[in-house]
Amino acid sequence: MPQPMAEQPVIYDERDGIAIITINRPDKKNTLTESVVQGIADGIDQATRSPQVAAIVLRGAGDTFTAGYDLTSKERWDTPYGAPTVEARKGAWDPVRDMQFMGNNVRRFMKIWECPKPVLGEIRGWAVGGATDLVLCCDLLFMASDAHIGYAPSRIYGTPTTMMWVYRLGLEHAKQFLLTGRAIDAETALRIGLVSYVEEPEKLSAMVEAEARRFRHIPANQLALNKLLVNQAFENMGLRTTQMLGTFFDGVTRHTEEAYRWVEGFEEKGFREVIRERDRPWQDYGERPRPSAPNNDIAGKED
Q1: pLDDT digit string, tens, across residues 172-209
Q2: CATH number of 5-79+95-296
Q3: Helices (DSSP H) in the chain: which residue ranges?
C-alpha cells in the first residue's frame, strides 16, 4: 500500500510538461537519508522515461532545499557491496566498504548529471554539506535571494564527493569556499557564477517552473545532445577521477582522530553545540549574526 503523500520522503509530480521532484522532510530541514537519496534517483529515472516530461525541477518542501546528510538518523544506508567481515579492532575502518557506501550516493546523485533532460535546481533557505553534492549536479541553479549554500564539512568531517565545486567555479573561488567552508549568500553565488538566477523567495518556484516549461519548445534530442556535449567537456577534464578521490578522501576525513573526537562530542555536548562550535569562529550557518530569523537556524540539522 503506497504511503500518503505527506509521509513520502520524496514526492514526484508531473504537470504542464515538467516533472517536479520534492524532498519532503520539512520538519528535518529535508536532510538526506537513504530513502531520500533513493527517492530522488527514482524520480530522475521516472522523469527520464516519461514522454510527457521535457525538463525536471528539483526542490525541497518548506523553507529549505536540504541541510545535508542527516547525521542523527537511525535509517540504515544501503550499499551494493558485500564481502567477508572480520572482527575489527577499535578505530579500524574498511576504506573499500566506505567508498562503496558513499560511492552509491554519488552514483545516484550523478543520475541528475547523466539525465538527458535538463534538471533545474531550486535553492531556498539552505543547501549545506551533502546537499551541495546533490544540487551542484543540476544543469541550472536558481536561488532565493535570502538563501545560502556552502560546504561546512570542509572544516571537519568531510570532502565533497561529487566535487562539482571545482568544475562550476574557477580555481580561486573553489579554494576560497572549500578551504574555509564559508556559507555563500545568493548575491555572491550569482556574482561568482555558481547559480544562474536569483529571485525573491515568494517568486522563486514560479520562476523555476516557467523556465522549465520553456524547454517544451526545444526538441528533446536537441536538448540531450547539447547537454551531453557540455558534460563531456567536463568529463574530459577529469571529473570522474576527481569524484573518486573526493569520495575516498571523504571517508578518510571521517576516520581521523579529530573526526572521532568531534563525533564523541555529540554525546558529551549535544549535536547542536558541536555544530555551533564548528561554525562560531566563522560566524555563519547557525552562528550567522542576525536580528531574528528562526526559520533559518539550521544548527543541528546539517552536513
Answers
A1: 999 999 999 999 999 999 999 999 999 999 999 999 99
A2: 3.90.226.10
A3: 34-49, 95-114, 130-135, 165-168, 171-180, 186-191, 201-214, 220-236, 239-253, 257-269, 271-279
